[in-house]
Amino acid sequence: MRGWIKVLLVMILLPILVGGLVLLVAGRPLVFEILRWRTADKFPEIKWIRTDELASWQEDTGQPQPVLLDARTSPEFAVSHLRGALPIDPYHPSLRTLRGISKDSAIVVYSSAGYRGARVASWLRNAGYTTVVNLAGGLFKWANEGRPIVRDQGRPTAMVHPYDQRWGLLVDGKYRAQAADVEKRSAAP
Questions:
Q1: How far lies 165's CA from each of 22, 117, 141, 143, 177, in Å?
Q2: Cα–Cα distance between 84 and 103 in angstroms, integer?
Q3: Which of 36, 37, 55, 77 is the most exposed place for a label (fewest CB within 10 A)?
Q4: pLDDT, tens only, 47-58
Q5: 170: buried, middle or exposed (CB in 10 Å: 19+, 13-18, 0-12)?
Q6: d(Cα 62, Cα 155) in Å, to the nearest integer?
Q7: Would the pTM count as exceeding 0.90?
Q8: DSSP one-letter code for 187
Q9: First-to-last CA distance in the chain?
Q10: pLDDT tens per residue across span 18-45
Q11: Under 8 Å CB-to-CB from 28, ≥6 apart: which residues?
Q12: Is-contact 179 161, C-beta < 8 A?
């Protein structure tokens, strides 16, 4: 009996404790990277852009700017979004949002943490858009880095809709808005 208890401790409890320690030390950056890997497995055709790369692109006014698509729900978009972003329904996307935009235009899609953005980016690629990327870490990571976000009429804000209480833990508390959970229609935000 004691042998089984030792095996149980070594095989189950020890990896859980080590994993918890790694997560405590590495924190959100590790979680964002794990989410990107898991999402990339589901959408392998999608290319990704890091938050620092998008910020540099936006600062370089000498080059054409990307079309920004916010693949979150209307309540999330109302709390905050990237300046100039167009909302697109993450569950029933429509090309009406991109009316007048060339299929070879640079498009950056983002969501809360990256999953819904990847799903919409995949849908756009299948619709013939050739230069589509997904923002790694989504708006959560962008906000955690203190990068600019806006709300209605382009007014600056620091708050981000948390999607729900569990996923909202990825957003630093000082940026986490008090808001109702989003109706769950997918496995990830």
A1: 22, 20, 16, 17, 11
A2: 19
A3: 37
A4: 999 999 999 999
A5: buried
A6: 25
A7: no
A8: S
A9: 44
A10: 555 444 445 788 899 999 999 999 999 9
A11: 141, 144, 170, 172
A12: yes
Tokens found for residue 179: 């808001």
Residue in the structure block whose two tokens are 């989410």: 35
pLDDT digits (tens, 9 = 90+) for 126-179: 999 999 999 999 999 999 999 999 998 889 999 999 999 889 999 999 999 999
Contact (Cβ atoms closer than 8 angstroms) between residue 86 and residue 99: no
The DSSP output letter for 83 is T
